[in-house]
Specification:
The protein is an all-alpha fold. It has one domain: Phosphatidic acid phosphatase type 2/haloperoxidase (Vanadium-containing Chloroperoxidase, domain 1, Up-down Bundle), CATH 1.20.144. It is built from twelve helices and no strands. α6 packs across α12, α9 runs antiparallel to α10 and α9 crosses α11. The longest helix is centred in the middle third of the chain and has 25 residues. It is globular.
Length: about 260
């Protein structure tokens, strides 16, 4: 028999309380990225991802009716400055942070909270990495100047030098907004109409902002659809999609 039975009992009791305390402690908040520099990579391998330069048609030819329409739309939408739609276009410029999918809050009927939906948040974030893989060859190959570079005018944001130097065709925001909408509408089919409408509006914000032409936005949606189709065949994406869909379903149920 132990010469210190009372001490042993005290130690066992203390350990039990410690274990209960650990079990009842809240889980640590998931770690997310902060922006471009630490942004998560995508799902698709570069050599297996679609190449937008190979499947997109080229941007409208100089002087064509399509280019004339692009220019006319660009000029007409400058009149939206200081309107609510202009402010929405400015807000829609956010694309890199974990909270960027909040643009779908109203369409989903809940507030998008990264900490509450960590797998969904990372899934949507990783899609930006895949978009860069798919669209970069087209951006660099077509090298279409942005509208505010060709014809300086008001834009909804102050363009940074890298934006002015990057290609306008296709629109990356339009591509990702449409791909996000396709993902979310499959997870919440009862809200598909609202989600898809918001995905379209997200792309239109780039045209309203003055940083893309209308044809850039349309081409972006083609890229977004190609991105979504490719991810649907990726096993890692499929696995995350199932978990993320449950997160969204649970969050929507809790909000009712």
């Amino acid at each position: 028999m132990s010469p210190f039975p009372h001490a042993r009992r005290l130690a066992a009791t203390a350990l039990a309380f410690a274990l209960v305390g650990c079990a009842g402690a809240p889980a640590p908040a998931p770690a997310f990225w902060t922006g471009f520099r630490d942004h998560p990579h995508g799902y698709l391998a570069k050599d297996g991802a679609p190449n937008a330069a190979a499947f997109l048609p080229p941007p409208p030819e100089a002087g064509s009716l399509r280019e004339q329409d692009d220019i006319a739309v660009y000029r007409a939408t400058r009149a939206l400055k200081d309107t609510p739609r202009w402010a929405q276009a400015r807000a829609d410029n956010e694309i890199e942070t974990p909270s960027a999918p909040r643009v779908f809050d109203e369409a989903l009927g809940i507030r998008f909270t990264p900490e509450r939906m960590p797998v969904l948040t990372r899934l949507l974030g990783r899609m930006l990495g895949d978009l860069e893989t798919i669209q970069t060859p087209a951006k660099r190959g077509f090298i279409r100047p942005r509208p505010f570079v060709t014809e300086p005018a008001e834009t909804c944001i102050t363009p940074e030098p890298w934006l002015a130097a990057s290609g306008s065709y296709p629109s990356g925001h339009s591509a990702l907004g449409w791909a996000w909408a396709l993902v979310l509408s499959e997870m919440a089919p009862d809200r598909a109409d609202e989600i898809l409408a918001r995905g379209l509006a997200y792309g239109e914000s780039r045209m309203i902002c003055g940083v893309h032409y209308a044809s850039d936005v349309e081409a972006g949606r083609i890229v977004g659809a190609a991105l979504f189709a490719s991810l649907k065949a990726d096993p890692a994406f499929q696995s995350d999609f199932a978990i993320a869909a449950r997160e969204l379903t649970e969050a929507r149920a809790a909000a009712r």
